[in-house]
């Protein structure tokens, strides 16, 4: 009595999604309603059979990714423990960004550059490496943007250094800086997002844009930038987000971009500053010899 039960009912994918994402993505319908602090789920109040009702309005996508370290970290168990923590923390941030609809699932960590050319995430031995990701790099084949036919995405990887902090100091990881920027880069890699702190001039020169706040694709170290924007009036306002790279190039807000590639996800009706944690063990990290 008192246990809280979360049901995950697997949903089969149809073409072109099976071709686009192969076995990287798992889609579930659930009975969990995301809240600021976690999930509102079924609570056991009496013994016997418990009926859990799932709904397509409460989806969850788990991404199973391969991770490759450039070096053999078996002699540094503290680093491997920290890496497992950071990967799970990045999953938590992704869960927050997506209002409890996306997290990392099964993560296989390889060492000494095993599987380097084929892993989704590669971690360089360089301790001063600036993170970057191929936009929509999780696709398995060349994929044309559904709204902008001149934009074509292809298979790529997400690159991280062995350490990272917001100040770019070599060899130091400060707090959650590493997993937080990984979640930001995963948003490029998995969702096809572009940075809102960049834009184009009339002469097609890249410039910085500082007016678009609230987005995890901005300065992710600002605690107010932990969501994806869905409000069209806010997004298209030239004084706020109208001059950003994603609006200029993709001409759609961030949740519209997410739903372009993952139509099962539900665009929020209002801003949810959470969930603050994943209350279930959705992310599993396996480190190979």
Could you walk me through the main structural features you see in this protein, from its secondary elements to its overall organization?
The protein has 289 residues and is α/β, with parallel strands linked by helices. Helices cover 21% and strands 23% of the residues. It contains six helices and 16 strands. It has helices spanning 17-21, 77-97, 177-191, 232-236, 245-250, 254-261, and strands spanning 4-5, 8-11, 25-30, 33-34, 39-40, 42-43, 55-69, 102-110, 121-124, 132-133, 143-144, 152-153, 158-161, 198-200, 206-208, 284-287. The strands form five sheets. Strands 2, 3, 7, 8, 9, 10, 13 and 16 form an eight-stranded mixed sheet that branches. Strands 1-6 form a two-stranded antiparallel ribbon. Strands 4-5 form a two-stranded antiparallel sheet. A hairpin with a 7-residue loop joins strand 11 (143-144) and strand 12. The longest helix has 21 residues, at 77-97. The chain is globular, with a radius of gyration of 19 Å. The N and C termini lie far apart (42 Å). The model has no long low-confidence stretch (mean pLDDT 94).
